[in-house]
Amino acid sequence: MSLHTKTTMIITEKGDAEPFSHERLISFVKKITENYPNLNKESYLKRVIQAIESRDTFSTEKITNLLILEGLSYIDENEPDWTFVCAHIYLKKLYKEAAKNRGYHPEEQYGDFYHLIKTLVAKGVYSPKLLEDYTKEEIVEFGKLINPEKDKLFTYIGLRTLADRYLARDYDRNLYELPQERFLMIAMTLMAKEQKQLRFALVKEAYWALSNLYMTVATPTLANAGKSYGQLSSCFVDTVDDSLQSIYDSNTDIANLSKSGGGIGVYLGKIRSRGSDILGFKGVSSGVIPWMKQLNNTAVSVDQLGQRKGAICVYLDVWHKDIFAFLDAKLNNGDERMRTHDLFTGVCIPDLFMEQMEKRGDWYLFDPHEVRKVMGFSLEDFYDEERGKGHFREKYWQCVENPHLSKEKVPAIEIMKNIMRSQLESGSPFMFYRDEVNRKNPNSHLGMIYCSNLCTEIAQNQSPTITEQQYTKDGKIITVKTPGDFVVCNLSSINLARAVTDNVLKRLIPIQVRMLDNVIDLNKIPVLQAQLTNQKYRAVGLGTFGWHHLLALKGIRWESEEAVEYADKLYEEIAYLTIQASMELAKEKGSYPAFTGSDWHTGTYFEKRGYRNSQSNLDWDMLKEQVKTHGVRNGYLMAVAPNASTSIIAGSTASIDPIFLKVYAEEKKDYKIPVTVPDLNAETTWYYKSAYHIDQLWSVKQNAARQRHIDQSISFNIYVMNTIKAKDLLNIHLTAWKLGFKTTYYLRSTSSSIEECESCAS
């Protein structure tokens, strides 16, 4: 009796049927795994073959998906390289999809670049400016820069994130663009207005930086560069004046920015408190909570091109009479009419509050409208110029002592308890140490910083936009406004693990700063005062990610003085190179309009940070003189953002954060992908300690060393177990403040669910 084994038929994309070939599959798997000898290929092949042969028919597309899914199931601490195998298979799928839509053979991998641009311009996806700014000959030459080998740098989760969210598709979601084309498109877009004789070299250099994953651009730039829609900046901060007109105008501005992908910080500290008077009528104001409710509705209803709801963080001063209601706004219990679950919150804290809280003293709450009326000044317009003394505390005590000014007295520690309770439950409020921020503001000659942005890394001058008059003329309604400083920031981040390891910082940072600076002139922001502020300060935010990855590669323990010293040394070098790059750009293109009188101009910037040759191996004295002579192109230069999604694309660890787990599942809306920390092996595993098991005071020390070199701020997360004692959490906050922190971001406890900010990801 003979055994008859049925043969599974493979259905090709053309609909043809052919018998399943073991040899062909084995040959394919052998080829894509040849650089990874330690993988369990035999078991993998056996399971794939069993799955195929268990059915009568199997399509080629389903085989591709099966190969990926089986590969993902093998990812663990011992075999992390399966992620690259899965990425390789997924790449072939992307090549095939793009080739089909664009009409070329998949074996070519990348099709004609000029044809791609022509096609997507015709479909309304790419901007026609690309064909106006560049000739066909230039675009053909750019196309020759594309190196498909660079696609092999991606992990599976990195490639999948890039493909799902950032590669250009037509309006029916058909894929046209491939990874290296996205990078080249960004380079071309950002260099379009450069001098023609320099453009090719600059595009080539920008493509080098992006394709090697030495850096990433902010998600709005990554998503929208070269497109016919969207804008390129990451972060905005608005200051709301105490008037109905300003409140509603701000809401409209915020909606317009939110729809095009920006994350927004909003300062509410000028708005009168609940029970304040309006037009002399006592006790009729409803305070800040109703306006927060309005912003909450805006965040929910104005989503970001259908991808995610708007992201808004509101800030309030710790002396504002509405502070307790504000701190309760994110809690899950209590009066829902007073809750704003879709907003993030931040508290603006002066040194004096921390001092009073530490010595268990009293704290006084005021109505900002009444302070203006009775005292003739705005308390929020002052800060302490030195630790322990300054104009803010003078004005504050004047308010306390004035018998005509109403006030509420509370123990300072009670406010701090409410802050920490809300943080443990919801992750916020974020902390904004206003005195330290303003003391280190390089542009304090022109303004004041009241709060930070959504992710707490931006610190720039702010002021409200005021509507002066409205009138009719020739049948038109004319509105005259005095524009305030509406903060804009353009972000980009260095991949530390790759750039430092390959020793390319000196080459990388100049092209990165140029790319950031060019965003300012290319961007079309739908809020005019933001456009004006962008031109006035030319602010950029060069940051970093992959810090824990870098420490692991270098064999440096997180909880060590060595890590603190390395943070100090590395970020000093990054600061030096960034300032130098902006100075060189100023030589070429001119310094930012507000340079004269700034700390950059006077040299105070360098003195405040102790930058001198006698205390460094970098030539700070010369750079200080060069900046004084030539200026800097950008009024604000550095900011370390959370960059959760772009660090995934680049295959590294997020921002300056420690890892959560060595092996985890990355959960997105419709799939879950196993991921290991980068470069996980027998040597690095000992240096990958979980964030929740790290003594946070070591993280605080590292960040204090780092903050000295960052002119803006840093998205610094605090990681604690949900069993943490109040005194220990209080000690972390006190230590951060005493060591010169400007801000802290989320309190990430093991009990709270945190929403990632994706606007600032860079």
Structure description:
GO terms for molecular function: ATP binding; ribonucleoside-diphosphate reductase activity, thioredoxin disulfide as acceptor. It comes from [Anoxybacillus] calidus. It catalyses: a 2'-deoxyribonucleoside 5'-diphosphate + [thioredoxin]-disulfide + H2O = a ribonucleoside 5'-diphosphate + [thioredoxin]-dithiol. This protein is an alpha/beta fold and 762 residues long. The protein has a domain at 7-74. 43% of the residues lie in helices and 12% in strands. It is built from 30 helices and 20 strands. The strands form six sheets. Strands 4, 5, 6, 7, 8, 11, 14, 15 and 19 form a nine-stranded mixed β-sheet that branches. A three-stranded mixed β-sheet has the order 2-1-3. It has a two-stranded antiparallel ribbon with strand order 9-10. The longest helix is centred in the C-terminal third of the chain and has 29 residues, at 561-589. It starts with 8 loop residues before the first strand and ends in a 13-residue tail after the last strand.
